[in-house]
Design a protein that fits this description.
By secondary structure, the protein is mainly alpha-helical. Helices cover about 60% and strands about 5% of the residues. The strands form three sheets. Strands 1-2 form a two-stranded antiparallel sheet. Strands 3-4 form a two-stranded antiparallel sheet. A two-stranded antiparallel ribbon has the order 5-6.
């Protein structure tokens, strides 16, 4: 009886619309993106910093490998795995959404404590004279190590998924195509005991590692010039605020597409462990070799832009999360909504009546503010904001397809009420 009931679900998963170009994307992306990380990291440290230089400047073998790099990387991941298991904070465990099997997984909410402990340890290391600026020289070998770990970890996840029950598989990741399933991820929430591998990677080693790399670039600038530039300080502060905010509001990640919908395969593993720390830190590594002079007026304008973006991002996310937790709360009870056949209601006023994704708008304003301290002479520092715009438009399209399938006519009504997707009166 059990197998007969599960069969229709299994068939549905094989017929699921494939994303990212299907098999072709699953073959090309794991080749192209690691090369992009290595290329842009190398270019950011080159004198010309030109992404159009041809032939491209290729790093030597010595630049790509340092035996210290894998030890630093694995030690860093091990440290945060240990911090993940520590019962830090008053309410340090939270439940996720109900899964297809009817269960709810528990997650530790202690990422912000992990960030604080990391800051204390780094302060101690700096006080002891540790050359944190050496991260600049170690950046390429660290990127190579992170890419290697991403591939090995993804292979492990793919193999172990065949021992997972069918209800534990991601609907879009069990297609029967090995290449695509390896890329997109077969198992939804792979765990070793209570240790959730996807949740751990989502906000811990890569995200905190990003601001540590930034700090290393700042210390390298101090070594070279005696003090950090205003541009470097702004980039470090803006991005630290972003990471600290994500970890302070860690519980909100439990309702995101990455956790709820996507399997854990190469796409997320590489994104978490390699793409985020090395692509998102491009502005800081660029500024080490290409220092910028920033007037106080320009700095004030950039700070205001980042502040506006952060305000929109945080206020809209907080409103959404509060509505999900308790629609009767005074801060959201007066908002106008549309009923759906699923029993859920869609917000059509407040921040979510302005555009369908006000949090994406705030995100993009911040992304621009992170690039502006690098000046306008080079395109490289703006790679992040260009990539992020493409990513969020693609993610919005994924949201659109899923919500239309889930809410039907109610979604059409919602789209008429809130016609703009990310940018008011533009898109």
């Amino acid at each position: 009886m059990g197998p007969n009931k599960k069969a229709p679900k299994h068939k549905l998963s094989h017929d699921t619309e494939r994303e990212f170009g299907g098999t072709l994307g699953a073959v090309c992306i794991p080749i192209f993106l690691p090369l992009t990380v290595l290329f842009l990291t190398c270019v950011s440290q080159s004198p010309k910093a030109s992404v159009f230089q041809w032939p491209p400047r290729l790093p030597s073998t010595d630049q790509l490998w340092d035996p210290l790099a894998p030890m630093v990387l694995l030690g860093w991941i091990g440290l945060h795995a240990l911090l993940y298991l520590m019962p830090l904070g008053k309410d340090w465990v939270s439940e996720g959404l109900v899964l297809r099997g009817g269960t709810r997984l528990k997650y530790p909410i202690n990422g912000f404590h992990g960030l604080c402990i990391s800051a204390v340890l780094l302060t101690v290391l700096l006080g002891l004279g540790a050359p944190l600026g050496y991260l600049f020289e170690l950046l390429m070998p660290l990127a190579v190590s992170a890419i290697t770990v991403s591939f090995l970890f993804s292979i492990y996840l793919y193999v172990r998924s065949f021992w997972a029950p069918s209800h534990a598989l991601a609907l879009g990741g069990d297609t029967g195509d090995p290449l695509y399933d390896f890329f997109i991820g077969r198992e939804l929430n792979p765990r070793i005991g209570n240790f959730d591998l996807k949740y751990f990677c989502e906000l811990r080693p890569g995200l905190i590692g990003w601001v540590v790399i930034n700090l290393g670039m700042l210390m390298k600038e101090v070594e070279l010039r005696g003090s950090p530039s205003l541009s470097m300080i702004l980039v470090n502060c803006f991005q630290l605020l972003y990471v600290a905010d994500a970890l302070w509001n860690e519980e909100a990640v439990l309702t995101t597409m990455d956790i709820v919908h996507d399997g854990f395969g190469f796409m997320l593993v590489f994104g978490d462990l390699a793409w985020v720390p090395f692509i998102y830190s491009l502005q800081a590594s660029f500024l080490v070799v290409h220092p910028q002079t920033l007037s106080l007026l320009k700095a004030a304008v950039i700070v205001a832009l980042n502040g506006a973006g952060y305000y929109i991002f945080r206020k809209s996310n907080s409103q959404k999360n509060q509505f999900r937790r308790d629609p009767t709360h005074p801060s959201v009870s007066g908002l106008e909504t549309i009923a759906t056949a699923t029993g859920k209601r869609l917000l059509v006023s407040g921040w979510w009546g302005l555009v369908r994704h006000p949090n994406y708008l705030g995100d993009l304003l911040m992304a621009l503010a992170w690039s502006l301290p690098c000046g306008f002479a080079h395109l490289l520092p703006y790679f992040y904001v260009i990539y992020f715009t493409v990513l969020l438009i693609h993610r919005e399209a994924r949201d659109e397809r899923q919500c239309r399938a889930k809410y039907g006519l109610a979604w059409d009504t919602y789209c008429r009420r809130v016609p703009y997707r990310i940018f008011p009166y533009i898109y």
